[in-house]
Amino acid sequence: MKISASIRSLKPSATIAAAAKAKELKNKGVKVYEFTLGEPDFTTPQHIQDAAIAAMQAGHTHYTPSGGIAELKQAICSAYERDHGLQYQPSEVLVSNGAKHSIHNLLTATCEPGDEVIIPTPYWVSYSALVELTGATPVMVDTTEESGFCMSADQFASAITDKTRLMMLNNPCNPTGAAYPVEALEAIAQVAVERDVLVMSDEIYEKLIYEGSEFRSLPTLREGMRERTVVVSGVSKAYAMTGWRIGWAMGPAEVIKAMDKLQSQETSNPCSISQYAAIEALNGPQECVEEMRKEFAVRREYVLERLRALPEVTFAEPGGAFYAFFNVAAHFGRPLGGGKVVDNASDFCTALLEEAHVALVTGDAFGAPGYVRLSFATDLETLKAGFDRLEAFLSA
Ligand code: PLP
Questions:
Q1: One Pfam family of this protein, by short name (predicted)?
Q2: What's the pLDDT tens digit per position in 182-195?
Q3: Quick one: 181 and 235 in the same domain?
């Protein structure tokens, strides 16, 4: 069967592939210490589940408008006004099957062959793959551990050409956990306004911010930024709702309308029941978000303590999200657990899984050779056992 060239060259999501590999081992009866997937281990709060049940019982089990029901769009607008003082109209909001779907729609609606899309690196796996699907060219801007994996305004300015169509910012960042300092974000916003560049601001981890860091939504930072930003977010991470598949994009009505047109052809609408659950998530009590954040903060402290004790491993402390991203390159070319010798992060992850049954994701997938990503969206007991094994593997 002939498969199209663009799909032939599309790489499968590395995080999903790493999780599948771990699962394969688990299915053979092996106890695997799994730190690959970026999803909260908490169950969706009860009041949100109840709202979904009530929605079903009220008969909300039919097609909805393609870009989401008016009540949810309004709830999203109200949440941004409450949390960030931002005023959006429902016509500036699109609800999708998860933030990933909104990102795909945005790229498809705005990019074409010949365009360039600036991506600070390390980047979330899907960014480059989805840009390539449109035929546009990803332009990677490398950031370093020393800068906390934050792209500077100068780096951004230098990457802009007359072909630049979009810049994809992710704050806080998956995989690095980088939370941009407000001044750094302001400087980036200034460049975007001066050079008139559209920015996708993926703020899906905005509620998961730790002591010492502060979150500010990009459009609030500078006059002229609201017109040049498409905010992407969703309920997956903050409300432990990964499986419900509700995300959104918020930005200039013209772009949103184009994305909605595309979405109406791709998929009739996001799940009706999930949309009602998302209204409750946004309008209902918010204490659950802080309770989960506090739990992530405890795990983050533990992870940092364990990372500091690992031999010859370097990292920048994550200010947000639930990932630790660390450099293991010092261990390449020398025997690890089971006598395995590796020379890149992908082989490191394979050896670690086979020998120690610890599953991490290779930094190669995020454009960061030498690094590995550990998701601490898992309980402390598993983290402890995983770190004990990782430490033994490195010290063999
Ligand atoms: N953006 C980033 C940076 C993510 O890490 C993820 C999920 O891992 C998403 C978007 C997609 O989230 P959703 O579940 O809403 O599709």
A1: Aminotran_1_2
A2: 999 999 999 999 99
A3: yes
Task: Give the CATH number, domain containing residue 10.
Answer: 3.90.1150.10
Q: What is the pLDDT of residue 101?
A: 98
The DSSP secondary-structure symbol of 268 reads S
Q: What is the pTM of this model?
A: 0.96
Per-residue pLDDT band at 37 (split at 50, 70, 90): confident
Q: Please state the ipTM of this predicted complex.
A: 0.99
Q: 216 is written with which tokens?
A: 């500010």
Residue 65 amino acid letter: P
Residue whose CA lies nearest to ligand 1 atom number 3: 174
Determine the atom of ligand 1 nearest the C-alpha atom of 102. 16
Whether residues 15 and 100 share a domain: the answer is: no
Q: For residue 227, how many other CB atoms are within 10 A of its CB?
A: 12
Contact 195, 202 (CB under 8 A): no
Are residues 34 and 172 located together in one domain of the fold? Answer: no
Say yes or no: CB of residue 13 within 6 Å of ligand 1: no
Q: At what angle do helices 272-283 and 46-57 cross, to 10 degrees?
A: 140
